[in-house]
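TICKET #2291
ISSUE: user wants both folds in one file
ATTACHMENT 1:
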Amino acid sequence: MRAISGFGQSPSTIHYTHDNSSSLEEQNEELPHEAYNAGSLLFKISDPLSTGELTLNNTNADDIPNISFNYFSNPQDLQTCVNGYHILEKLVKTKYLIELMQPSNDTFEKLLKFTVNETVNLIPRTADVTESLEKCCRQALVTIWHYHGGCLKGKVINSDYKVLGAQGLRVIDGSTFVQSPGTNPQATLMMLGSGFGQSPSTIHYTHDNSSSLEEQNEELPHEAYNAGSLLFKISDPLSTGELTLNNTNADDIPNISFNYFSNPQDLQTCVNGYHILEKLVKTKYLIELMQPSNDTFEKLLKFTVNETVNLIPRTADVTESLEKCCRQALVTIWNYHGGCLKGKVINSDYKVLGAQGLRVIDGSTFVQSPGTNPQATLMMLGRYMGTKILRKRLGQAAGV
């Protein structure tokens, strides 16, 4: 995943706040491909006190802005990083990790050097990098994938995410965050942007409906979202959808028929999921978090249907059966796939059929979505294919 760090950046647009004496190229140290057949232990400096700066060179959106990350401009962040390495050192010496490697007295020092060399960033290296943990912190750091803070409220957007001074333009992504969430922000971002970008003309349904959500005129208060969620997923559904292009313009939205529950077995799986949720709601651990009554689960069902953001019209009798709840409260859970399948759009090398110099390597090539967030799977797939392409074109000269 770190292999993509630094792309889209150039030394002229990134500034550092510490001294460096030699570049990574000058060291001429290469890592064998086998070095990546390993796991990673990472730590994150959450809520750093150091702040960066982003300025535009001009009004051309294609031009890269000037970015000053100002890493460790606040010394407390540097101390936090050093503490992180101390924790990693203790972990490396635990019996569980010792069983996975052949440790020696200088194992941790070797791991530090490997970490600095393996991290992909534009920060020049010094030969004495392992002399102190402070130097390791400065040279092995990387913004951990999820950039944020470039479009803050009051500076670029207003409280409705509308860009200041522009008409018909909003920004709804991680650049609006003051701080990045402690975990992968995908779910947070999808929740934030739920409903944007959809249009009724591009989504079709395969079940009857009698009234639309707009006709009900039911609004949820902001406080309704100050809560947790219990979700279940219909893994490996038997129902399949259909995607067709309107034309050859890549900017035009295709026609999508999800065909939810066209196979009745999927509907039964959904009903079984609600039965499990009903049992969970009645456990002592969740009862302590709310004041349950005889109709608590029915209220939760109605809330679930109303709270779910999709374009499926609602019926007034939605809580009469779990089947109706399934049909009206469903949503494709963020990670779309299946639009570019092998043999239909791409071949086994991910090359687009009938096109030259074009590959698709993303979630659209999956027949089924992984059971968890697919980000790591996709990044691993992208790295593997990138390495494979380089080896085929350059051979040993590829260095990977």
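ATTACHMENT 2:
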Amino acid sequence: MTTCCAIVGLIFLVLTNLANIIAFATPYWIITGRLNRGLWAYCDDSTCTWVFQEVPTSIPGQDSAWWLATQGLMCCGLGVSLFALLVATVALCCECKRCNSSHAVAGLLLMGFLVVGVAVVVFGISANKELLIELDTPQRTFSWSFWLAAAASGLSLVSAIVYAGEGRARYS
């Protein structure tokens, strides 16, 4: 029997994954003048270029360790969140009497919260120091994808709390 708490947790988990995927793929982490930059693409007024198409030599910070660390951490965070979604949906269909899938999902989501949260913090601090990205400067600022990644981290924490509560209520 699926509980209301499991359904609420699954809704938060789907929202977490949507936010992670959108933040991961869009080129709007920072705005520097007429250039929008994301983890995997950068766009000017007329075109977008993916980092896999060519090596961006004229864009500062693109090959720095903190940028690559953010890309790697976001990959791991997205993978963990997608795996948590897989486990949660399988747990809806197949109930195991001796195992607590809710606690496993909560653990995965907690790990996703930490990994994506660290990625956002590393990116924010490093972009501020090296690229002079500020919160209050419209020409050099963090854009909506950055904030969506921060929100995805928070949603992952909320989802983890809901699943931990559901697992505790069901198996205590």
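RESOLUTION: both attachments delivered.
EXTRA DETAIL ON ATTACHMENT 2: The radius of gyration is 18 Å.
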